[in-house]
């Protein structure tokens, strides 16, 4: 980007976190926040992270709403399995999802989504062919899981990070 | 009694209590699941209750409590939620990948083998 703010997203996040932690936005707090944000942005650049190319950030909103809905729903589903009597009859298993998403930041977000949703766990990412291995607690239909992850999560991430 | 709690209106007390109880119950159910589920890969699903919705409702309860009690918006719990969501996958991935590595080495038929996607 430029010399002072090589990673504007990181700096913006640090500034936001700084103000939230201080719980004030007076002039000294804001000034020190800007200073810390710029310095940490520069420090982050020294790590040579892969370039982040984000387009169509607004897609994050429907994605986040989907994720919140799925997290709430699957919390109750998994709680019901744990407390229910029929948990031995619930079949669990691995599902292989062919992935098109290559961007590291997109994959990082996908891993947070899949792990934060109870009932699915990110197991491993195989390189060739690019395949994501997940474990599903209540596995009924493998294809339905593949479709769900590709359409609900991967597609918006693909459009955002390419 | 803590003056913060004594000055809290009734509706806020009820809301905070409900949110914290939901969070605590989910964490408890997750822990019960850790005991009751049979295999490693099934067990590892249980604690996600406590770190997803369980953590969120507890944090929401904290936000409501301190916002109402102090008469201003208290939002820094959002950061806790964000950092929990960002860091939990790393722990789970380490655990699950270690298990997968061992099972693959042991030639367990339960785990899919490497680089051989099912048709």
Topology:
The complex is a heterodimer of chains A (162) and B (119).
Chain A: H1 8-22, H2 27-46, H3 60-83, E1 93-98, H4 104-116, E2 120-126, E3 131-136, H5 142-160
Antiparallel strand pairs in A: 1-3, 2-3
Helix pairs in contact in A: 1-2, 3-5, 4-5
Chain B: H1 3-6, H2 10-36, H3 40-43, H4 48-51, H5 53-70, H6 77-105
Helix pairs in contact in B: 2-5, 5-6
Architecture overview:
The complex is a heterodimer of chains A (162) and B (119). Chain A has 162 residues and is mostly helical. Chain A has helices spanning 8-22, 27-46, 60-83, 104-116, 142-160; strands at residues 93-98, 120-126, 131-136. Chain A has two domains: 8-46, no CATH class; 57-160, no CATH class. Chain A contains five helices and three strands, in the order αααβαββα. In chain A, strands 1-3-2 form a three-stranded antiparallel sheet, with helices on one face. In chain A, β2 (120-126) and β3 (131-136) form a beta hairpin. The longest helix of chain A is centred in the middle third of the chain and has 24 residues, at 60-83. The radius of gyration of chain A is 20 Å and the shape is globular. The mean pLDDT of chain A is 85. Chain B has one domain. In chain B, α5 packs antiparallel against α6. Chain B is mainly alpha-helical and 119 residues long.
Main pleated-sheet profile of chain B: none
* Oligomeric state as shown: heterodimer
Largest sheet of chain A: 3 strands, antiparallel
Mean pLDDT of chain B: 85
Descriptive tags:
heterodimer, A: 162 residues, mainly alpha, 2 domains, 3-stranded antiparallel sheet, 5 helices, 12% strand, globular, B: 119 residues, 6 helices, elongated
Entry summary:
Chain A has 162 residues and is mainly α. Chain A has helices at residues 8-22, 27-46, 60-83, 104-116, 142-160, and strands at residues 93-98, 120-126, 131-136. Chain A contains 5 helices and 3 strands.
